[in-house]
Amino acid sequence: MNLSRREKMSKQKICTTADLVKDSGVCALAKVNGEELQIALFYLPDTEKKVFAIDNWDPLGNANVLSRGIVGSVGDELVVASPLYKQHFSLTSGQCLEDEDVSVPTFDVFVEDSAVYIA
Amino acid sequence: MSKIKVVVVGNGMVGHHYVETLANSDVDAHITVIGGEPRPAYDRVHLSEVFDGKEPADLGLTTREHYVELGVEAHFGDFVANIDRDAKMVVTEGGQKFSYDKLVLATGSYPFIPPVPGHEQEHCLAYRTIDDLAQIKASAKGKTVGVVVGGGLLGLECANALKNLGLEAHVVEFAPGLMGVQLDDGGSNMLRRKIEALGVTVHTSKATQKICAGKKHRLKMEFADDTALETDMIVFSAGIRPYDQLARAAGLTVGERGGIEIDYYCRTSDENIYAIGECAVLGSFIYGLVAPGYRMAEAAVSQLTADKVAFTGADMSTKLKLLGVDVGSIGDSKGLAEDSRAFVFSDEREDVYKRLNVSADGKKVLGATLVGDCDDYDTLLQYFLNEIELPENAEALILPAVDGVTPTLGADALPLTASICSCHNVSKGDIFSAIDGGCMAVADVKDCTKASTGCGGCAALLKNVVDSELLARGVEVNTDLCEHFAHTRQELFTIAQCTQIKSFDELVEKHGNGRGCEICKPAVASIMASLWNEHVLNDDLVPLQDTNDTFMANMQKDGTYSVVPRVPAGEILPDQLIALGEVAKQYELYSKITGGQRVDLFGARMNDLPAIWSALIAAGFETGHAYAKSLRTVKSCVGSTWCRYGVQDSVGQAIDLEHRYKGLRSPHKLKMGVSGCTRECAEAQSKDIGIIATENGWNLYVSGNGGMKPRHADLFATDLDTPTLIKYIDRFLMFYVRTADRLQRTSTWLESLEGGLTYVQDVVINDSLGIAEELEAQMQHVVDTYQCEWKTALSDTEKLKRFRQFVNSDQEDSNVVFVQERGQVRPANDAEKRRQLIHAVK
After folding, report:
1. Cross-chain Cβ contact A63/B514 below 8 Å
2. Fewest beta carbons within 10 Å, which of A4, B164, B291, B616?
């Protein structure tokens, strides 16, 4: 899914780094394949990748809330904990750590001249 | 192999236990049970409760339906007439025939009725079965006096029954004292005092010579000492005799003084016939209590399985309430053994008698007698059963607590083999296994092990063992806060305080590892708040907060928030109520009154929160911290200002307290209550801090809890003036904030501390740790640095940026959909959302 998305999508500016909150998340809207999506953006400036993007939809809590979770680590995995029922989702793969059948989409994201793009 | 045919004669408590144990075992058996009484087994131990409002059915241990479910063939109201051992068959009086492979006799006993001339006339009754009760009741109707012959355990139970029937009750005992089997003279005398105080007349050393017609009442009892007593009825409860006639007729060996002789495997002289319970005699001893009967039943069942268990006798210790009087008897209760040395405590003001018999070297408990106060029973019994070495001051075990310090044997001190529930033979090890198997509460353990479902005497001890073990495991499994900190919350608090580290990053770098998580981050944020009390939305603190703290509102299931402004003590101006209503209307918020005397407004969208709060603050409200682990509310009753009964101004006090402690971040939420008099309308004793007005000041209660695990608060200090009250609360709360675990309420915190209440009283009242001043200063700092978090946030545009649903759009979350119910909004369910979506597309 991510692959096809990447092929079809051109890079899309969604916000600036000033909109991001260090070590925490915010939510941005983006049009992906004509579909409006809520994207949770996490800003971890001390990591190599700095910005991480996953779907804002919590598939277990059934609400758009993941951007409002607490960011942290489980072992070496960077994660966000859902603010509703505290399941962990990997910021890099979208995988739910408590349920291997559950994951959320992830998006490629990068920063150029303090603009945040998804591609 | 075909099923083994087991026939059980008798359906009393022990017979029933046999049937149930066998039916639930691996043995492939066809079980037939024949009961002489017209109903299935019931709880004979609590028979007298039928006169205290219980229905006979309430005493039932099983039902016909339950036996059907177990696949047990049951026949009631038909006595077995004889046993044909050659044909291996029993025949009932009703002519039914049942063949058996194994026969179990659980025929029980019958009341011994002394052969006094005149005992066979009307209104001379026995006390043993539910049917006997009906007769007693009928006989008592319209009459005034009843006599029980027999001052033993059952006799006193029966006296209670007569008293409950409204009769003037007398107990006539042949021996010089009551309960002579279990109690020594001192205990016996104390019991007599107490029982007589309850209005039961006790006659001892009375040998009944003759029962004849009375003048004033139906009957007249004439005694050997030439005295007499008139009564309307006589109930005999002068001991029991094993019901062994059936066995005698079948040629089985019986004891010299009756009872079917059995070996350690409960086998009679016929290897295919077992006898259990009160009809059986083992080594000339009849076990007339239910617990040993159950053990026999289990031993007899095990003979049909691979692992054969022996019954080698049982402890006859017992604890019960007789006419409301606590009586306990352990082991050699009278100190008859040669090397027995006694400690005796007698309090004739409170009517308490205790005797502790220890070995000559003072190391072991040999037995004990307790009358009027059985609080020490559990501890003494465990010392006795497990032969635990006594402390040097063994007498302290029965002495009343001085300054509230009672040396109790903690659950931890018991060995795994310690029997906790003797009715169902559940050891501490069994309870641990149940906890291993996933039991997380006393109720689960009861379901799983049956512990404390017999006489119930071990309830307190069971709770103690389970709670202490769960607590221990909670800590044992992981004393670390989480994978990022190998410290408890208390240790982290100390680290933060001593190092003055004010950022999470620094703390985790120097004292932890990884990036933190949803457990340690809010915990550290709470610690930082308690120590430095900076705004929750400061840059360094924001990433640590739970969403509720970040948005200063409570997230609901659909991602919207609820808003609760503070209403100190529940006192609110009419204009404020109107403002609340207007805000709710403007933002379409669902409104509900909370249990803490304020109003909760639901369904607020994140991006509306600042505007909602602007309006609320303009109306004079401030944040209610409903989203935080901190002081929630101080509930109050209306107090002396309005109430006819109030003795102090509880509302004023509650308002002051709420303003003082609002904003204090703590390991878990805090609730308080202030009642204006002892009627306690504010339910202060279910709060972390409860205050009840007295004529002279305020009584302080601590560590109460409602919710999942209710706990009545402990009385901490009495008749305090307000400055002292505040001082104690400051110290108490700050000590809690410093030392409690993450998400540990004051109730569990207090119980987890060694020394519990007494210890905390010592720290707070006597300043035993020399930190009182520091605790007060720390609290004063929190009080002085209070800010309404919402007010501060509203004046800071940077902070408000967080309240955007989307950083790049003003749109709202399309998944938040409301429908109307009872005139207000509520979140739409999935089906309703789909319908609205279809509607929108059309």
Report:
1. no
2. A4
Q: CB of B28 within 8 A of CB of B304?
A: no
Q: What is the interface pTM, i.e. ipTM, of the complex?
A: 0.89
Nearest residue of chain B to residue A14 (CA atoms): B808
pLDDT at A54: 96
CB contact under 8 A, A70 and B801: no
Q: Whole-structure pTM over 0.90, yes or no?
A: no
Contact between B668 and B629 under an 8 Å Cβ cutoff? The reply is yes
Residue B408 pLDDT: 54
Rounded CA-CA distance B308/B274 in Å is: 14
* Rama region for B254: left / alpha / beta (φ>0; ψ in -120 to 50; rest): beta
Sequence letter at residue B770? G
Please report, as a single letter, which amino acid is at residue B29. Answer: A
Inter-chain contact A79–B804, Cβ cutoff 8 Å? no
Query: Quick check: A14 contacting B, CB < 8 Å?
Result: yes
Non-local (6+) Cβ contacts of B367 within 8 A are B329, B330, B331, B332, B333, B334, B335, B340, B357, B384
Cβ separation A21–B514 shorter than 8 A: no
Interface check for B800 against chain A (CB to CB < 8 A): the answer is no
The per-residue pLDDT for range B498-530, each reduced to its tens digit, is: 888 888 999 999 999 999 998 899 999 999 988
In tens, the pLDDT along A18-44 reads: 999 999 999 999 988 888 899 999 999
Beta-bridge partners for B820: B825
Does B260 score more than 60 pLDDT?
Answer: yes
Give the C-alpha separation, B546 to B554, whole Å.
Answer: 10
Distance CA A98, CA B291 (A): 47
Closest to B246 measured CA to CA, from B267, B273, B224, B226: B273
A72 vs B517, B551, B813: nearest CB: B517
Q: Which two tokens stand for residue B656?
A: 């002051």
Q: Hey, of A29, A31, A46, which one would you mutate to test binding to chain B, going by the most B CBs within 10 A of its CB? A: A29
* DSSP assignment string, B107-173: --EEE-----TTTTSTTEEE-SSHHHHHHHHHHHTT--EEEEE--SHHHHHHHHHHHHTT-EEEEE-
Backbone angles phi, psi at B663, to 5 degrees: 85, -5
A105–chain B Cβ distance below 8 A for any pair: no
Give the pLDDT score at B1: 54
- pLDDT for residue A1 is more than 50: no
**B636, two tokens:** 């109050």
Question: Would you call A73 and B514 a contact, using CB atoms and an 8 Å cutoff?
Answer: yes
Q: What are phi and psi for residue B319, nearest 5 degrees?
A: -135, 130
**A115 and B CB contact within 8 Å:** no
Q: Is A71 helix (H, G, I), strand (E, B) or coil?
A: strand
Of A12, A23, A116, which to mutate for an interface test with B (greatest number of B Cβ within 10 Å)?
A23
Residue B170: burial class (beta carbons within 10 Å; 0-12, 13-18, 19+): buried
For residue B605, which of B627, B620, B626, B590 has the smallest C-alpha distance?
B590
Q: Which of residues 551-580 of B touch A (CB under 8 A)?
A: 551, 555, 557-559
Report whether B208 contacts B222 (CB < 8 A). yes
Chain A residues lying within 8 Å of B517, measured CB to CB: 70, 72-74, 79, 81
Question: Which of B551, B811, B830 lies nearest to residue A29, judging by beta carbons?
Answer: B811
Tokens of B549: 């703290």
Contact B655, B569 (CB under 8 A): yes
Task: Using an 8 Å CB-CB cutoff, list chain B residues near A19.
Answer: 801, 807-808
Q: First and final CA of chain B: distance in angstroms?
A: 72
- What is the rounded distance in angstroms from the CA atom of residue B317 to the CA atom of residue B332? 9
